From TrEMBL:
Any one GO biological process: pyrimidine deoxyribonucleotide catabolic process
Family under the similarity heading: Belongs to the 5'(3')-deoxyribonucleotidase family.
Provenance organism: Flavobacterium phragmitis
Organism taxonomic ancestry: Bacteria, Pseudomonadati, Bacteroidota, Flavobacteriia, Flavobacteriales
Domain of life: Bacteria
Annotated InterPro entries: 5'(3')-deoxyribonucleotidase, HAD-like_sf, HAD_sf
Gene3D superfamilies membership: Deoxyribonucleotidase, domain 2, HAD superfamily/HAD-like
Protein name: 5'(3')-deoxyribonucleotidase
Residues annotated as the enzyme's active site: 9, 11
Family matches, as SUPFAM superfamilies: HAD-like
Length: 177
């Protein structure tokens, strides 16, 4: 029997990109942003325009040093028992991130085979049974069942099934078995 498939986004789902961006932004611009202070804002609103955000995301080692989301490693291991897991990241927007993301996954998720890592541009090509992502721009095109992972920029979005953390994600997916 073939296992159902799950595509899991990296940034904002496996990796705490919010915290990393806030830390870099505060250090570079002398601000005091917190996760709480940017809730409900778009990325452009939270970080004063796209140019500053792009500058931060293009720094060497930005993606290589991202913190792991709480319970992510254990949860992906748990899901791997019953699902085929693919890590899917729209990484080509930031070409420096490609090698950093592969290295990051090798360090934190060494049990994910290289064949199950998909670094792409648009996620519209991904055809899995489930997609866990923090961006509606990806979830809206999901062929399977979209699952929105809560992030500051999607708090006000309500048109996808939402999970707030990895324990909730595992519970939702295990209910489908």
């Amino acid at each position: 029997m073939n296992k159902k498939t799950i595509a899991i986004d990296m940034d904002g789902v496996l990796a705490d990109v919010e915290l990393q961006i806030i830390d870099h932004y505060n250090a570079a611009y002398g601000t005091t942003l917190t996760k709480e202070s940017i809730q409900g804002l778009s990325e452009e609103e939270a970080f004063n325009g796209r140019d500053l955000l792009i500058e931060i995301l293009n720094k060497d080692n930005f993606f290589r040093t991202l913190p792991v989301m709480p319970d992510a490693v254990e949860s992906v291991r748990e899901l791997q028992k019953n699902f085929e897991i693919f890590i899917v990241s729209a990484a080509t927007e930031f070409p420096l991130s490609l090698a950093e993301k592969v290295a990051w996954l090798g360090e934190h998720f060494p049990f994910i085979k290289w064949e199950n890592i998909v670094l792409c541009g648009s996620k519209r090509i991904i055809k899995t049974d489930y997609l866990i992502d923090d961006h509606c721009k990806n979830l809206d095109y999901c062929i399977g069942k979209p699952i929105m992972f809560t992030a500051f920029h999607n708090i006000n979005q309500t048109h996808h099934l939402r999970v707030n953390n990895w324990k909730e994600a595992v519970a939702v997916l295990n209910e489908t078995l």
